[in-house]
Each structure stands twice: as structure tokens, then as C-alpha cells.
């Protein structure tokens, strides 16, 4: 087990409408200082297919894509003990503080990417949310990790379609690259 720190902050702005939360960045993502940088992770191909828009490998272009589509991106975990990139090995997790995003942006939906992100969100984040705060729906999406190789890319893209509705697009508008 290795103790890891997230290493970089959330990607969001005041116009963000949905918040996508992973568990913790992979070693490659921590090394690059940006989200989903393992070339075998299918997050970015899922987004390209969903929005019918080429995104490319550059973090600045990826960040611009997310801002343009009002998508905030972060992870549930600020630090934890983990073996490599194996979510199943996560222990001693410390959550990120979502308060700045939830107070400054109009987040209408939270999406968690994978079983561990969902479990840790429910366990570590939800209990700390203010009871008098807005009720924000949470939807579990499948993991885009190479560990979820049994799920085809087209099936992942279908599973991620609720993001389009949450930001106010129809599937056809997403396909046109809004």
C-alpha cells in the first residue's frame, strides 16, 4: 500500500451544471496532473462519442471541452492508501471538500464514475452535506477504467447519456457537438 495525495484540484467554474466524481486519480493521472490520463481509460473516448466532438490528448483542450459543456470534474478522495490504481484496495480515505463547487456553481446533478466512487461519496461526502442545502440527485455511472473492460465503448456512451439531459441537451444535440 502506498499513501497517495490527489495532487491537483477540481476542474469547474460558476457555469458548471453537473459534477462528475471519480474515486482517486490513477498513477498516470497524478503524474500528468490531470484527469483520466491513462491511455487505456475510456473516459475521454466516452465523452467524444457522447458529444460527437474530437477532444484530443491535451489537458488544456480537455479542460476547455468540460467548461464549454458545463461539466465539473473532480474526485471523491483527497488522499488514501492504495495499491497502484486498484480501487478495491483503497483504505484510509480522506474526502475532498465539495463545498466550494456546490456553493459557487449551480450543480443540478452529481454523477459518480464507478462503484467505489459511489460508495465513498455516500459514505464520506453525503453525511457532511448541509441538511438545509439543496437536494442534488446522484447517479452512479459505470467505470471507464480498463478494469471494466467487459463493457463495450458504445455501452459506456449509452450509460453516460444522462449527462446530456442534466446539462439540458437532448441526445441529438449531444451528437451535434452543441
UniProtKB/TrEMBL annotation:
Positions of the Uracil-DNA glycosylase-like domain: 13-152
InterPro entries in UniProt: Hypoxan-DNA_Glyclase, Uracil-DNA_glycosylase-like, Uracil-DNA_glycosylase-like_sf
- Which superkingdom? Bacteria
* CDD domains per the UniProt record, alphabetical: UDG-F6_HDG (cd10032)
* Protein name per its UniProtKB record: DNA-deoxyinosine glycosylase
Amino acid at each position: 500500500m502506498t499513501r497517495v495525495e490527489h495532487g491537483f484540484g477540481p476542474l469547474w467554474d460558476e457555469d458548471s451544471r453537473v459534477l462528475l466524481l471519480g474515486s482517486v486519480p490513477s498513477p498516470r493521472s497524478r503524474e500528468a496532473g490531470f484527469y483520466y490520463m491513462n491511455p487505456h481509460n475510456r473516459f475521454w473516448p466516452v465523452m467524444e462519442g457522447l458529444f460527437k466532438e474530437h477532444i484530443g490528448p491535451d489537458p488544456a483542450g480537455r479542460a476547455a471541452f468540460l467548461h464549454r459543456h458545463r461539466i465539473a470534474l473532480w474526485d471523491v478522495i483527497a488522499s488514501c492508501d492504495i495499491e497502484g490504481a486498484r480501487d478495491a484496495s483503497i483504505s484510509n480515505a480522506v474526502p475532498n471538500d465539495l463545498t466550494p463547487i456546490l456553493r459557487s456553481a449551480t450543480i443540478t446533478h452529481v454523477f459518480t464514475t464507478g462503484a467505489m466512487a459511489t460508495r465513498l461519496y455516500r459514505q464520506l461526502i453525503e453525511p457532511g452535506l448541509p441538511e438545509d442545502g439543496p437536494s442534488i440527485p446522484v447517479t452512479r455511472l459505470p467505470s471507464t477504467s480498463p478494469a471494466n473492460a467487459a463493457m463495450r465503448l458504445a455501452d459506456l456512451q449509452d450509460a453516460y447519456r444522462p449527462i446530456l439531459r442534466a446539462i439540458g441537451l437532448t441526445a441529438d444535440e449531444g451528437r451535434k457537438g452543441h
